[in-house]
């Protein structure tokens, strides 16, 4: 089965391709089909993921899968949330993973409450007008470190310390990370929903 992935993020694509391979699902990045990115005007992950999936399904005529994910920091009332990808730009830096990490660590200087969670919301549609979208949510709680640790992963992985492992996501090998990450949790839920409903 071919499903268009409503994202151009290479890290997300690689993770999701590995997770969906057992179902015989081939994920096609929307840019491969000439589909531009959708607007993401909403303040919740689920609304943005649904908008992205509908946009990709409508433009491609294929079933679509969208992921909206982000970092929710307790001390910041759950922010940056849906603005995670552009976090650094709020503080005068260019968009990018390294700058996002830098900005976060600067903003958290002197903050004792380091609790945070990486959240992934996956939405899948059979068509653009599917009235029953499949929705799966994964949440990986942890603590924000005071400096980046580890060289694997992407995004906030180097500063997301997972107490159960005593390591950051960036210190885990990819298979271990995929098993326990927010995106891995959501993908397993989504695979189960697809098997059951589709």
Provide structural commentary:
The protein is α/β, with parallel strands linked by helices. It has one domain (2-197): Maf protein (Alpha-Beta Complex). It has helices at residues 10-20, 45-60, 97-107, 174-180, 182-197; strands at 2-5, 26-29, 64-73, 115-125, 134-144, 160-162, 167-168. The chain has a 7-stranded mixed beta sheet with strand order 2-1-3-4-5-6-7. A hairpin with a 4-residue loop joins strand 6 (160-162) and strand 7. Helix 1 (10-20) packs across helix 5 (182-197) and helix 4 (174-180) packs across helix 5. The protein is globular.
Which short descriptors sum up this protein?
198 residues; alpha/beta; Maf protein; seven-stranded mixed β-sheet; 5 helices; 31% helix; globular
Offer a concise description of the structure:
With 198 residues, the protein is of the alpha/beta class.
Topology:
Elements: E1 2-5, H1 10-20, E2 26-29, H2 45-60, E3 64-73, H3 97-107, E4 115-125, E5 134-144, E6 160-162, E7 167-168, H4 174-180, H5 182-197
Parallel strand pairs: 1-2, 1-3
Antiparallel strand pairs: 3-4, 4-5, 5-6, 6-7
Helix pairs in contact: 1-5, 4-5
Q: What is the H/E order? A: EHEHEHEEEEHH
Instruction: Provide the number of structural domains.
Output: 1
CATH architecture: Alpha-Beta Complex
**CATH fold title:** Maf protein
| Radius of gyration based on Cα positions | 17 Å
How many beta-strand runs?
7
- The N- and C-terminal alpha carbons lie at a distance of 11 Å
What percentage of amino acids are in beta strands? 15-25%
Q: Which shape, going by the Cα principal axes?
A: globular
Approximate helicity band: 25-40%
Largest sheet: 7 strands, mixed
Classified by CATH, the class is Alpha Beta
Tell me the structural class: alpha/beta
Secondary structure tally, helices: 5
Strand order of the largest sheet: 2-1-3-4-5-6-7
The residue-averaged pLDDT reads 94
Low-confidence stretches: none
């Amino acid at each position: 089965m071919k499903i268009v992935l409503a994202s151009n993020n290479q890290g997300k694509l690689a993770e999701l391709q590995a997770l969906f391979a057992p179902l015989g699902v081939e994920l096609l990045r929307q840019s491969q089909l000439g589909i531009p990115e959708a607007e993401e005007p909403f303040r919740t992950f689920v609304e943005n993921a649904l908008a992205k999936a509908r946009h990709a399904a409508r433009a491609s005529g294929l079933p679509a899968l969208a992921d909206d994910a982000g970092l929710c920091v307790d001390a910041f009332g759950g922010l940056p949330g849906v603005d995670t990808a552009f976090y650094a730009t709020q503080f005068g830096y260019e968009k990018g993973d390294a700058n996002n990490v830098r900005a976060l660590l600067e903003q958290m200087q002197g903050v004792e409450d380091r609790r945070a969670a990486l959240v992934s919301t996956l939405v899948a549609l059979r068509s653009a007008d599917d009235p029953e979208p499949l929705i799966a949510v994964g949440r990986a709680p942890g603590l924000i470190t005071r400096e980046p640790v580890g060289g694997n992963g992407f995004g906030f992985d180097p500063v997301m310390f997972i107490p159960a492992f005593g390591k950051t996501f960036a210190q885990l090998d990819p298979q271990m990370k995929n098993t326990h990450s927010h995106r891995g949790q959501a993908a397993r839920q989504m695979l189960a929903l697809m098997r059951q409903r589709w």
